[in-house]
Design brief:
- The structure holds two protein chains of two kinds.
- By secondary structure, chain A is α/β, with parallel strands linked by helices.
- In chain A, about 50% of the residues lie in helices and about 10% in strands.
- In chain A, strand 3, helix 8 and strand 4 form a beta-alpha-beta unit.
- The longest helix of chain A is centred in the middle third of the chain and has 23 residues.
- Chain B has one domain.
- In chain B, strands 2-1-3-4 form a four-stranded parallel beta sheet, with helices on both faces. In chain B, strands 6-5-7-8 form a four-stranded parallel beta sheet, sandwiched between helices.
- In chain B, helix 2 runs parallel beside helix 10, helix 5 crosses helix 6 and helix 15 crosses helix 17.
- Classes of the chains: A alpha/beta, B alpha/beta.
- The interface between A and B is large, with 53 and 57 residues.
């Protein structure tokens, strides 16, 4: 209820005609919160200690998490172009350098898929189907264009289906190499150039290299802010819950990076000011999988008696962890950064031995696990993701080599099925406690 | 007691050529087993990756793991491999070809040799594995995963295709260059693991043979526009074997020449496939149900003959620019041109490559109805069928249906459900016939 009240105020505020239009949206979010009853962080407060400041960052992030499209909708209404995209392979920086808003398309685990099945087989990734379903229901009408990278078979097909069912004036497909070699980088760069040409033609604007360079700096600042937030999870117990962190990351996927940075920094300040909780014996969990843009499952794990302290998810570290190198030609750095995203859909050249190969593929996870002092790993795979399904057993072998227990869960991207997982999660946590 | 009676899975073939294909299949595995004994190099491969002729030119014996999965299904010998893969942690929704391959490799490792009674003697241990991103994701990921069960080097290549609305002239150059580089990197891998340089003259020869087999197959398909239909779809699912698994060989060329002659004879003498051909049906897409190919004969019993297919298609003829003098560059051009051969036409009409192809087939082959096969574990060939069906219905009112099972996993198949659906489809064909 609070969310809907807030959404109305928020829309009114951001309307160009609103008498409040000179008022900072951020200040407004903050002030409005104090006029609304309720607190979104009650559960996690009891776990992570009481607040002793105004909670501005967390409340605003929570609101954005609950109403993810509100800010993008407002900017679209105000005349800014909003470009939706999927996955971790479309550089935000390029879209932002055209003064457009990059909007990471997300689904809804709470809304049933009631339209998409008319157009798309049910054996497709339910996350992708959910996103498309939202589009069919008009929830993505604020998008001026969308870009789909060739991440997987489902997205390749979704591009055609979406484009022909809900056409927009800009639709673009970026071919992303599955292989990593010098020729792959050259090809991906050319694909990004083709994408830039498409944006130029569509918008009538030129790409200013200075703006692209600046976008790289801004998005790297966001990455740094998010990494700082993740640092707070190293403490024992962590200063911030996994559910809070996921919300904070996801909330910012459809707003200008500068605003997200401000919110994350405010949230970090707020978290650091929290009264430290006592040490406990709860296991520290690492989460691996694909698209998890809803905190429900993480909350389930935490409510079952664990701390979710680190992840390798499309909506987590995979999305933001590595910086774009600040190169003279900014596109060089962008190509390097995005092509090397750690994702099961990309094949690294095989190393000389099995051990070396696993280290090459999963070494970044090994480092996370050691630094965040992880006790157990949960795989949360949104069903029908062939590359994750093939990667999982190899990663489990690697982690078991580190003496880490693994629980492998395959789910339907729906909060209605999450309850069924509670028993499995509890049994796993009991086993490793 | 378990019923050990042999279960019927295959269909009655229409042509003599198709009846010879079983020998080609057996020979795939026999050749690989003999090659191992003779010290020749054997490689797991993903067929139709556009690199096939390179392996032939380097005398590497190809071992097509997907074909083995289909063979297991046709022999109803898939369960132990599927279950083994699932026991090893692979999801039941993962590509069932991959599950059979992974399960087989796992069992072979566990048993210390090829599992007893494996179809056609099973697959020997490969010396290397070569995947590709052509068609689907598991085709480049599967060999990496099976590294758990066998110690062999693997390498995969990208096969890239621009979307239908791409400006082909603008992207052509860098797509071809990337494809060429991917082939060159593969050649370096193969040279390293065979200790042998690629002979480019040999490659020209295998390319020539590959192109010739393709041309003959294409010409045969064009003959199939005839009424009555001289060759049914169940034959297609056999006769694709030489083109896909013997790419770049004289055997394949000889086979398609013979097939062409046979089909031409049947057309010239108006010899149709068995039974009354009251309705001409198009197999609209999806991998075939290898576990139940006799279902095509079931359709025929109602007078519905499958006369053409939109799967395992032979490539349209393409013309590589004459300035190309290097066989690897030729291969890169051929790949690009084959993969984009329908783009301009689709762009000018429906805007959808699949829809455009099907409309062409419906018109040329005088089709009365379309049947799709959705495979629960194959996203690449299944996703988009509903959309294609929806789009097609904007152009035609002919009956269309989508049967659902899997290419090899029988647990996704229901004979009763299929028969009910087929009955309704036949009624719709009859109803349309009356109206016409």
């Amino acid at each position: 209820m609070t969310g809907s009240i807030f959404a109305c105020y928020f829309q009114a505020l951001l309307s160009q005609d609103s008498p409040l239009s000179g008022y900072s949206w951020y200040e407004y979010l903050h002030d409005t919160y104090h006029n609304i009853e309720g607190n979104f962080f009650i559960d996690t407060q009891s776990l992570y200690g009481k607040e002793n400041n105004s909670m501005t960052g967390s409340v605003t992030l929570e609101e954005l998490y609950q109403c993810r499209s509100q800010r993008a909708q407002a900017l679209h209404d105000a005349g800014q172009k909003v470009i939706g995209y999927f996955c971790c392979y479309v550089p935000d920086e390029i879209i932002a350098a055209f003064d457009m808003l990059p909007y990471r398309i997300q689904g809804s685990q709470n809304e049933p898929i009631d339209q998409a099945d008319v157009h798309m087989e049910t054996m497709a990734c339910p996350f992708a189907r959910s996103c498309f379903n939202l589009a069919l229901n008009g929830k993505y009408d604020f998008l001026d264009g969308f870009v789909i990278p060739h991440t997987c078979d489902t997205l390749e097909h979704l591009y055609v289906i979406w484009q022909e069912t809900r056409p927009l004036s800009l639709t673009h497909f970026v071919n992303v190499p599955h292989m990593l070699s010098p020729s792959s980088a050259t090809f991906y760069r050319q694909e990004l150039n083709t994408f830039i040409v498409a944006l130029k033609t569509w918008s009538g604007q030129k790409l200013d290299t200075g703006k692209l360079r600046e976008a790289v700096r801004v998005y790297n600042s966001r990455r740094a802010a998010l990494r700082d937030l993740y640092e707070l999870r190293k403490a024992d117990p962590p200063l911030v819950s996994g559910a809070e962190v996921t919300k904070a990351v996801v909330a910012g996927m459809g707003i200008p990076a500068t605003e997200h940075i401000e919110l994350i920094r405010a949230f970090i300040t707020e978290v650091k000011a929290r009264q430290k909780a006592k040490k406990d014996q709860r296991p520290r969990i690492f989460l691996w999988g694909n698209e998890l843009d809803d905190a429900a499952f993480i909350r389930l794990v935490e409510e079952s008696g664990a701390h979710v302290v680190m992840d390798d998810l499309c909506t987590g570290t995979r999305f933001f962890w590595e910086d774009v190198p600040e190169t003279e030609d900014p596109l060089d750095g962008i190509v390097t950064r995005y092509l090397n995203t750690h994702c099961p859909r990309t094949n690294l050249p095989q190393a000389a031995t099995r051990e070396a190969d696993l280290e090459n593929r999963f070494g970044h996870i090994g480092r996370f696990v050691r630094e965040w002092k992880v006790n157990g790993v949960i795989f949360y795979i949104v069903r029908y993701c062939d590359t994750c399904e093939l990667e999982g057993p190899d990663l489990r072998e690697y982690l078991q080599g580190m003496k880490l227990p693994v629980l492998m869960i395959e789910d339907d991207y729906s909060t209605s099925t999450i309850g069924q997982l509670r028993t499995r999660v509890q049994a796993f946590l009991e086993m490793i406690a | 007691m378990e019923n050990t009676e042999k279960i019927k899975t295959t269909a009655v073939k229409g042509t003599k050529a198709a009846q010879k294909v079983r020998g080609f299949v057996k020979n795939i595995y026999r050749s690989a087993q003999e090659a191992k004994a003779q010290g020749k190099k054997v490689s797991y491969v993903m067929v139709s990756s556009h690199y096939d002729e390179i392996l032939r030119a380097m005398d590497i014996v190809p071992l097509p793991t997907e074909n083995f999965a289909g063979l297991c299904a046709a022999k109803r010998e898939m369960d132990r491999f599927l279950l083994k893969a699932e026991e090893d942690g692979y999801s039941q929704v993962l590509c069932s070809y991959a599950r059979i391959g992974l399960g087989f490799d796992s069992l072979r490792k566990e048993l210390g040799g090829i599992p007893e009674n494996s179809p056609d003697g099973g697959m020997p241990m490969p010396d290397m594995m070569v995947g590709s991103s052509n068609v689907c994701d598991p085709r480049f990921k599967w060999f990496q995963a099976t590294g758990r069960f066998l110690d062999a080097p693997h390498h995969s290549i990208d096969v890239v295709k621009p979307p239908v609305h791409a400006d082909l002239k603008a992207v052509q150059n860098y797509y071809v260059r990337y494809q060429q580089a991917q082939f060159e990197e593969l050649i370096a891998f193969l040279e390293k693991h065979t200790g042998k340089k690629l002979d480019k003259e040999r490659l020209w020869e295998t390319l020539r043979l590959g192109d010739e087999a393709c041309r003959l197959w294409y010409e045969t398909d064009r003959l199939r526009v005839a009424v009555p239909s001289p060759m049914p779809s169940q034959d297609r699912f056999s006769i694709m074997v030489p083109a896909y698994y013997y790419t770049g060989t004289q055997e394949a060329v000889d086979f398609y020449r013979e097939l062409y002659e046979e089909v031409k004879y049947r057309v010239d003498n108006k010899i149709g496939t068995a039974g009354e051909q009251r309705y001409r049906v198009l197999y609209g897409g999806g991998l075939p149900p290898w576990h139940t190919l006799w279902i095509f004969n079931y359709f025929e019993s109602f007078g519905a003959a499958f006369v053409m297919e939109n799967v395992y298609r032979v490539h349209d003829p393409v013309e590589v620019p004459s300035h190309v003098k290097d066989p690897v560059e030729y291969l890169a051009w051929r790949t690009f041109l084959r993969l984009t051969s329908s783009h301009e036409k689709a762009k000018a009409n429906s805007g959808n490559i699949e829809v455009e192809r099907l409309l062409d087939l419906i018109r040329d082959y005088r089709i009365d109805g379309v049947v799709f096969h959705a495979c629960r574990s194959c996203r690449a060939t299944t996703l988009g069928q509903i959309h294609t069906k929806n789009r097609l219905s904007q152009f035609t009112d002919m009956p269309m249906t989508q049967l659902v099972s899997d290419m090899v996993d029988l647990r996704d198949y229901s004979e009763a459900q299929w028969k009910a659906q087929i009955g309704a489809f036949i009624e719709a064909l009859a109803g349309r016939e009356k109206t016409a």
